[in-house]
Amino acid sequence: MRHRAVLIATLSIIVILAGCAGVGGSGLPTPLPAAFMPTAIALTLEAQGVGMLTPTRGGGSSSLSAPAAKTPQAAGTATPSNGGEAGPTAEAATSPTPQTPPPTSKPIMPPATATATLAPPFPDAPVQIFRVGELSKLNSPVPASLSLTSHDGKVVRVELYGEDGRLLARHLRTYSNIPWDIAKIGVDLEFGMSAAAEAGRMVVSVEDQFGRLMDVNSVDLILISVGQSELNPATALWQRLIIEEPVPKALIQGGKLIISGRALPNNPDQPLRVMLIGEDGRILGQRLAGVDFEKPGDYGKYVAEVPYSVNDLTPALLVIFEEGEPISDIAHLSSVQVILAP
């Protein structure tokens, strides 16, 4: 009896579906094609937990078979909207169709990205000190390995000072053929002291033929009388006081000179000193210049207006320097030649 009930239910579904096929399109669901009827019936019975009826070989009675397993194609078959052929498989039916954007009158620009602003490069120091770096711990002798590109330097001094400003060692070299290209100096500075350790400074200075300081570079050290030397990497390789304005050989008029540039002094709280020095050694003008730092430990900017007084065209050396007391008079110095006019 149960088999007959199932068979009657199946035939009823077929009749209902067949009846729907004759209804015209007035908002009603689209009918299934005839070829899909067996599949739809099987899925409906399987959802109700009823197996499909299959005729026996004898053709008399019916037997109940196990529900058929779902196949990807049967489970994902799409219903055609026009009542025609069977639709695509599940994979094709569920894949979204790429949408082509409509043409626009303006090109689509990529979003703007922030670009880092690089700082100007730091020039090599005219006096470079190799082998020993800042706060190297050194016993006697102190090795000095130098490269100089001052070109117009007449006298080069390599000096070692103690923490109270006393001179511990000095090496002097004079050049007769000026200008020159590059000078290489290697020397060992012998020193002696009574203390076990103290602060010290190696200072390298270059004078022109008029006795004016052109370039000064230095490195702070720890001097020891006993123990092993410990060398730190070289640090006195880049110019610490950079003059960007005026340019070399510039003609300055009006009794005022504007100097500007970048600086990285040992003491950021101490102002720099600016001087105009004539070939006879006279100071033609001078002024203090404060340094404005945007980031601690980085180069800062300075600007100063230096008044001067001359009667005729006068060659002068513009120098800017950092005082180095109590160890040495000057720690760093840079210069540029200018011509002063009334």
| Count of helix runs | 4
Shape: globular
Low-confidence sequence ranges: 17-30, 50-98, 109-118
Kindly report the average pLDDT value: 78
Please give the CATH class of the largest domain: Mainly Beta
Strands of the widest sheet, in order across it, are: 4-10-9-6-7
Largest β sheet strand count, sense and barrel closure: 5 strands, mixed
Q: What's the architecture of the largest domain, going by CATH?
A: Sandwich
Label this structure with key terms.
mainly beta, five-stranded mixed sheet, Immunoglobulin-like, 11% helix, 3 domains, globular, 342 residues
How would you characterize the overall build of this protein?
With 342 residues, the chain is mainly beta. It has three domains: 2-90, no CATH class; 119-238, Immunoglobulin-like (Sandwich); 240-342, Immunoglobulin-like. 11% of the residues lie in helices and 37% in strands. It contains four helices and 19 strands. Strands 4-10-9-6-7 form a five-stranded mixed beta sheet, with no helix packed on it. It has a five-stranded mixed beta sheet with strand order 12-19-18-14-15, with no helix packed on it. It has a four-stranded antiparallel beta sheet with strand order 11-13-17-16, with no helix packed on it. Strand 14 (272-278) and strand 15 (283-289) form a beta hairpin. The radius of gyration is 47 Å and the shape is globular.
